[in-house]
Amino acid sequence: MSSQSASAEGSSTDLISLTVNYVPSKFSGALLEPSRPRRRRPKNAMSGVGAMGIPRGGGIDAFRTGEARIPGENDEDYDGVNVSKSWRIGNKFFRRTKQPTKLRWNTFKIILFVSNAVFSVYTLITLILCLLTWFDVFQNADVIRVGNRTELIFSTLAATFGLLTAVIGWAGILLNNRGFLAVYTFFLWITFAFLVVPGYLTYKKRTFNLEGKLNAQWSRALGAEGRLRIQNRLQCCGWFSPFVEATISQTCYARSILPGCKLAYLNLQRHILKKWYTISFGLVPLQLGAIIAGLLCSNHVTYRFGKGMMPKRYQLNSNAMKVIVDNYTNEIAEQYGRDVASDVIVKSGMQSYGSSLVHDHSDSNLLSSPSPSRVGRREMSTMADL
Fold first, then answer.
1. Domain count, the chain
2. Model's pTM, two decimal places?
3. Which among 273, 300, 327 is the end of a domain?
4. Is Transmembrane there in the keyword field (predicted)?
5. What is the pLDDT of residues 344-359, one digit of tens each?
6. Measured distance CA(149)–CA(142) in Å, rounded
């Protein structure tokens, strides 16, 4: 029975707001005088009223002085901006629904949109070119697949990863999700690394002793099958002649009149490698622009960082208000008596939380402090949540 009661106590304290530990000893004016007007009433940002009579706010002005920081019920609309206006007459609240304001993209979101659109375009084009090369659509695509396989693999990986990054970026931009945009900005750096690798490999291969590297590749790396594919595509036979490292085929044999493959293969590699690293390094400024835009704008995709509201675990709820009101009335009752405490609760408009105290003055247990064991369990549970 003790374990069951303890578990029930723990589950009930889980529903109590963590704000209980941080409220001051005296209530603020907003709680004691709900009818008192706020210092600032925004013209554009509309606010609602919660179940406890606390003004609820949000919108793009949530960080201004005097603005309510607690969201409304099921507040999942655009950036926490409510679309209704409410006012209080006596003890009743009235709400008038207004036409939603026209949603506007800020400058940061427009920059993100443009940069990610450019990033998506060139990554998609790069991926299409890589796939066409793998599928042997171009005239000399098979030569590239044999002689530049490493560079082609890195280019395809960079384009694929870049397209995935662009999709994550679109999700973050259109959903105003800063978590997606953080991943998007991080993946932009990885895409940048994949982008410069094929450019570095092709530049290094072409600039430093390309002829010697192709000699070694033809004699050691390609093998008979690789040499045969290059011979068939370039219409040549052997390296220098049909008698030097040639793969026998229907067009390449001892008495073949076809020239050697060195000159044609060397000229093709010079042309392809120069185009390759030019495109790769030419995309670097665009990639750096996308990275800078992500770093500077991903946290400002809306008018403010986050929803500008108090986290849900720290919002005042009914259970938390009951605990606060009980402690408050106990302190007043110990000093001034039960009648004074009852009058204070009624005047403050929180009789719903102290109704038992108001209607039953003879019950002394309501004004007595809670048991030490219960207070200890409550504090231990609250500290565990923290």
1. 3
2. 0.61
3. 300
4. yes
5. 777 776 666 654 554 4
6. 10
